């Protein structure tokens, strides 16, 4: 068998460079090109050295781990023991995900009469797999594996960041209590223009049973001032929450000013894992006739001012 050591070296130089670059992106690091090249060069030299000289101990498990540690150290730096361990783990995770994807794609595209065809056993019991792939297909498969891994990693990171914005809220009105999942929206700057009370948004369907008949559905298409104008009719006369209703003007995406139906609760409690629960009494709840989350992950949007409220332990026992 003829082995072109220069091709082995340059192939591993490119692959190791891409793996180290992907590891840096996963870890949100920006190493210099010279550092990435140094790490990739060591990996490529190590892979090609086996064809120049035979040193069994150089290719033991311990030696491979040591070379990998040095590659990560050269490319990404140290940054402390915890950061270095995370970089090293991410390096192997990227390796397994991307190169495994290349091998999987090659076998997916390969056709054979028998699944055992192309497999050979060595004299000492080793297994040899006949894996052949054209250079162009190899580059495409490797790039696709990197892209899939990077996209999946970024999606997971975004979901984790989004999880930090989720709150569990409990709304209390008179003797009733409702618990919903809410998302903190730092871009929500809706206030009652007269009192400057912050307005959080909630799906009207949550209070379907407490609202007058049909209101939660009609809010999808009808202006809330029309519903308020019907309060003097027979079917809404004496509505117990009548004195809690408000109309809040807001500016829609198209620039037009519209009205939102809001309710004044007694207390809103915000809680999140690892944080002290918060108690908010100065807030209005705007009702949205649609669905706030297409995936159903939350049913309310918390105003950022609510996250600055006093903790329950230090808040007054009665609403302000």
UniProtKB/TrEMBL annotation:
The chain crosses the membrane at residues 36-55, 61-78, 90-109, 129-149. Keywords: Membrane, Transmembrane, Transmembrane helix. One of its GO terms (molecular function) is aspartic-type endopeptidase activity. The active site is at 185. GO terms for biological process: asexual sporulation; proteolysis. Pfam families: Peptidase_U4. InterPro entries: SpoIIGA. This is Sporulation sigma-E factor-processing peptidase. It comes from Cohnella abietis.
């Amino acid at each position: 068998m003829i082995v072109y050591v220069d091709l082995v070296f340059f192939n591993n130089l490119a692959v190791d460079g891409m793996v180290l670059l992907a590891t840096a992106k996963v870890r949100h690091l920006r190493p210099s090109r010279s550092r990435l090249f140094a790490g990739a060069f060591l990996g490529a030299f190590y892979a090609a050295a086996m064809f120049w000289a035979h040193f069994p101990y150089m290719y033991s498990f311990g030696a491979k781990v040591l070379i990998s540690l040095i590659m990560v150290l050269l490319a990404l730096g140290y940054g402390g023991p915890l950061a270095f361990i995370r970089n090293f783990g991410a390096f192997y995770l990227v390796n397994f995900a991307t190169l495994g994807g290349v091998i999987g794609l090659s076998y997916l595209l390969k056709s054979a009469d028998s699944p055992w065809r192309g497999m050979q056993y060595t004299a000492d019991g080793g297994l040899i797999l006949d894996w052949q792939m054209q250079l162009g297909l190899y580059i495409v498969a490797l790039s696709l594996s990197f892209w899939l891994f990077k996209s999946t990693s970024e999606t997971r990171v975004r979901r984790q960041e989004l999880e930090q914005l989720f709150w569990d809220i409990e709304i209390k009105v008179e003797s009733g209590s409702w618990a919903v999942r809410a998302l903190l929206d730092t871009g929500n700057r809706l206030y009652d223009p007269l009192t400057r009370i912050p307005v959080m948004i909630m799906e009207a369907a949550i209070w379907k049973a407490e609202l007058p008949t049909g209101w939660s559905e009609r809010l999808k298409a009808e202006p809330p001032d029309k519903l308020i104008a019907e309060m003097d009719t027979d079917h809404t006369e004496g509505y117990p929450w009548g004195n809690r209703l408000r109309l809040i003007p807001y500016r829609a995406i198209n620039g037009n000013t519209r009205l939102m139906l809001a309710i004044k609760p007694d207390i809103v409690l915000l809680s999140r894992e690892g944080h002290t629960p918060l108690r908010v009494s100065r807030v209005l709840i705007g009702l949205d006739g649609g669905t706030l989350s297409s995936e159903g992950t939350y049913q309310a949007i918390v105003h950022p001012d609510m996250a600055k409220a006093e903790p329950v332990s230090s808040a007054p026992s009665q609403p302000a």
